[in-house]
Amino acid sequence: MFIGIDLGTSSVKTILIDHNQQILASSNSNLTVQSLKDGYSEQNPQEWIDATIECFENLILKKPKEFSETISIGISGHMHGATLLDKKGNVIRPCILWNDTRSHQECKEFENQTFDVRSISGNIAMPGFTAPKINWIKNNEFENFKKIYKVLLPKDYLRFYLTGEFFSEMSDASGTLWLDIKNRKWSKELLSCSFLEEDHMPKLVEGNHSTGELKKEFKNKFNFKNNVVVVGGAGDNAASAVGMGIINSSQSFISLGTSGVFFTPTTNYLSNTGDAVHSFCHCLPNKWHLMSVMLSASNCLDWISSITNTSIIEIFNNLESYFLDNTLIQNSSFFLPYLSGERTPHNDPYIRGSFHSIKTTTSAINMQYSVIEGVSFGILDGVNSILKVNNNFDNIYMVGGGSKSTFWIELLSTILNRKLNVCDQSEFGAALGVARLAMFQDKNIQNQTKIIETVKINKSYIPNDDKIDILIKRYNIWKNLYKSNMDIAKNLIT
Questions:
Q1: Which of 236, 275, 348, 381 is the catalytic position?
Q2: Is residue 458 part of a domain?
Q3: Which of 88, 176, 465, 487 is 20 to 30 Å from 473 by CA-CA measure?
Q4: Annotated catalytic, 236?
Q5: Is 60 within the bounds of a domain?
Q6: What is the model's pTM?
Q7: pLDDT tens track for 255-285
Q8: Contact, 452 vs 246, CB < 8 A?
Q9: Beta strand pairing call for 2-7 and 11-17
Q10: Domain of 22?
Q11: Is 107 exposed, middle or buried (0-12, 13-18, 19+ CB in 10 A)?
Q12: In angstroms, rounded to a whole number, what is the distance separating the alpha carbons of residues 35 and 387?
């Protein structure tokens, strides 16, 4: 048996699978996020531990015998978070998360070097990445900076708690800005930009390689029969890709989760820093991937659901009939979905969400449609950014909470003018991905090439030809709205 742990922003999900990759049991435990100021986003690492233990206990209740026979564990995690440890292994301060934008000034400091930072890191410095967060801590919490012994990403702190070992793997480490992406190693030059050295970093492995075994106390606590190996695992999106079998350059996926992501593997190192495209290592040896990221996707839907006091199910029911009327679409308001700033393609920490073309006839349903459309336009922005350097993808798969909505996928298919595929088990994509990586540690599996196979397609969606021209016209207007807002955005931040 194999366990996959998906440490997400809002919850920890765990699954238990067998050698046939059948999900025998799953468990979920919620997490909280603290936002002390506009643009701040933090989490208490103790919650990750408590939630994981709760999930393990639930798996035991469901499948005690199978759980005890676990061979190995894989961990996926939300990327970029700065978890700081002192020499005693204690957490110095709450983890600054991926969607925190406070370090925008430190991004300039990080890139202000005598060498080309972007050519090594493969990425533009963004507040969401780990490195600028450390620079911010140095500038604003110097006492905490002086205590730093290790800097760990969220899943790697959970690994440390379970194994006592300091390890990370290539896909997650790519999001720190300290990794030489092409050569898959820590860069002394990039670390120096944050006044750190390689000793502050965990050791690097590939995602399917061992990083040690569970501590005896956990082996005994959970009655494991084996010395359970913990593998490198993956950053959340790379893990989701493996969960869907997306490791080849002809494939890609869109994630409609808290953030919105377009992800496609590449056989070689590629980069487009001009459009803030992420160029990362994949979690398997000798593979890379390109990724566009918008910071606010399904959380925009959660927000408008709360504001209009309408359930998400009701919203989608309303929009299905609304979308049938071209006149309603043409006269809808516009929404910029930048509730927490934006990454691809703008790299703008100042921009915020806004409605445009509000009229006396604007209704709640109109605004709800505008939100879903605006997020979808943001996904199109990301796809277009990646197309500038790579167009070698045909099969696009869907993952994340938004993938459960037929309306949203049909709208997105039309906006992108591409076929989209929904897969089985999409809600467990990341957990399944790292459980698959864990399977590489089973010596009884002789043909490891069959471990990562593409997940079965449940249904495919094709563009609605009657809506394409309307939506392209609205997309072009929507893009200009950002250009008009970017100049005043800084003045709106308090």
A1: 236
A2: no
A3: 487
A4: yes
A5: yes
A6: 0.86
A7: 888 889 999 999 999 999 999 999 999 999 9
A8: no
A9: antiparallel
A10: 2-238
A11: buried
A12: 35
